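User: Let's play a game. I give you a shape written as tokens, and you guess the letters that built it. Ready? Here's round one.
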């Protein structure tokens, strides 16, 4: 996948430019004009577009998708509860499309991500290149067979049976650091907690619900739909 070079905005719609002429419903913008554009650019039709540098959220919207990705509302809780910083080393498993690895890579020193399915591993490789994430290492391997990295600051498991990696996670984590679990079903979470509490202190189990509001002049109302349950999160601290 080629990287997005510029984001354009016109009348409530965003457009993403990689290379060549950009064809939009409001007219064609020539490549030569796009290369020179700083704040705005004019289409052949005369329509004016505002020009932005792409942000992480822009890239996230256009990344290649395989399995369902972890979305920002859940990633935010992981950051806020696990004491991550620019010197942190993170191991995750269940790479999927690589969205969580891309989120983490923005703020930590290094991310090592395990994925046992070849097709997901290949999707993630394309996304690492798309995001130009130099501090992400992808491993085509089953984390149940062991974690090579030691003294890591966080282990994040997006797996159907994370209780099978409790021992491996305990041996790889620094004292007092976190094993974070991401699961869609509360019965899965119950099983994990029952298995993990001998070696970990279960500090938090919960979910994040997000509701957007619509504001128009003096009228405000909640959006009719909301981002409700996506997954349960557990933060278990190594004893």
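Assistant: Ready! My guess for every position:
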């Amino acid at each position: 996948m080629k990287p997005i070079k510029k984001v354009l905005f016109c009348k409530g719609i965003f457009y993403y430019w990689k290379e060549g002429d950009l064809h939009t419903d409001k007219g064609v913008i020539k490549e030569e004009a796009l290369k020179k554009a700083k704040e705005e650019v004019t289409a052949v039709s005369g329509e004016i577009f505002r020009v932005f540098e792409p942000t992480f959220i822009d890239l996230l919207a256009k990344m290649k998708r395989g399995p369902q990705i972890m979305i920002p509302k859940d990633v935010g809780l992981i950051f806020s509860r696990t004491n991550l910083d620019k010197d942190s080393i993170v191991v995750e498993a269940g790479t999927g499309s690589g969205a969580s690895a891309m989120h983490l890579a923005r703020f930590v020193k290094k991310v090592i991500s395990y994925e046992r399915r070849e097709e997901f591993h290949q999707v993630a490789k394309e996304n690492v290149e798309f995001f130009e994430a130099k501090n992400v290492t992808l491993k085509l391997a089953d984390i149940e067979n062991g974690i090579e990295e030691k003294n890591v600051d966080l282990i994040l498991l997006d797996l159907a049976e994370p209780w099978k990696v409790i021992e491996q996670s305990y041996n790889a984590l620094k004292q007092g650091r976190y094993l974070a679990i991401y699961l869609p079903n509360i019965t899965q979470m119950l099983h994990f907690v029952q298995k993990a509490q001998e070696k970990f202190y279960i500090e938090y189990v919960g979910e994040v619900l997000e509701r957007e509001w619509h504001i128009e002049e003096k009228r405000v109302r909640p959006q009719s739909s909301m981002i409700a349950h996506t997954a349960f999160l557990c933060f278990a601290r190594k004893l």
